[in-house]
Design brief:
The chain contains 3 helices and 5 strands. It is an alpha/beta fold. The chain has one domain: Nucleotidyltransferase, domain 5 (2-Layer Sandwich), CATH 3.30.420. The chain has a 5-stranded mixed β-sheet, with helices on both faces.
């Protein structure tokens, strides 16, 4: 791996994401850049409204995550559930991120320190 690539790692489930990357964009150690929460839908009894709200909240969740990752070259997404796959599709459908190299895996929730170590190992840093 080239050290000058803008590499990021994300652990996510449908409710929470932890974003890792370099504090100084092109070099320096991997750190936690931030945490993003998805509040989930309200108890709307109308199924159509609830589905629309869920779609809108998921899009907002994804936008908040990508806001912490400008000029992304490579990303590894891990976590539980199918949300990682949805996020990778979101990146592919977004002009700014469509050329990013993406990879994914499944993993249980990790501490921030475990996630940083996982991503450092993944990117061979």
């Amino acid at each position: 791996m080239q050290k000058d690539k803008k590499q990021f790692g994300v652990w996510m489930d449908s409710q929470h994401a932890t974003i890792t990357g370099r504090e100084i964009m092109d070099n320096g150690p991997f750190v936690v850049l931030g945490h993003v929460n998805n509040p989930g839908t309200s108890n709307n009894s109308n199924e159509h409204s609830r589905n629309n709200e869920e779609i809108n909240l998921t899009q907002k969740f994804f936008k908040e995550i990508t806001h912490l990752m400008p000029n992304l070259d490579e990303i590894h997404v891990t976590g539980t559930g199918k949300i990682q796959e949805e996020f990778i599709h979101y990146l592919a459908d977004t002009a700014q991120y469509k050329n990013a190299v993406t990879s994914e895996s499944t993993s249980n929730k990790m501490s921030d320190e475990q996630l940083i170590a996982f991503m450092v190992k993944h990117f061979n840093l």
